[in-house]
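Narrative of activities, Objective 1.

The group set out to show that a structural description can be obtained from nothing but a protein's sequence at a throughput compatible with the screening campaign. Below is one input-output pair from the validation batch, recorded exactly as produced.
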Amino acid sequence: SHLVWHYDHAGAYVPVDFPVPLSDDALLAGGGPLGSAHGLLRELEFVAPSIGIDPANPPAAPQPPSGPTALEEPADPIPYDDSPFARERHVWLGLHAAATRSLAQGSMII
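Output recorded for this entry:
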C-alpha cells in the first residue's frame, strides 16, 4: 500500500503509476522506498469516506507553516476538528494536497 508505506523521514513518491511501492536494499540505503503519487491518490480517495471526507469535494488543505520550524517543532496547531478522526483527516488533507500537486506539476513528494 502506498499510503501505509508512507514515512515522514525517508523515501519519496514519484508521479509515475505503479501498483506497489518499490523497496530494496539499495533504495533503503539511499534514502528510502519509492511510492507512486498515482497509487497514493487512489488509496487516499478509497479511505476518505471512512474518515468523513468526500473525495470528490475535499476540504481545503492545511496552510503551510507561517515561518521556518525546528525539526521537532510543530508547524502550526492543527485546526479545530471535533470528529473522532481529526488527526487522520488532517494528515489525509496534507497528503491529498501533495499528491494532487505532484501529479499536476510532475514533481516528487519528499
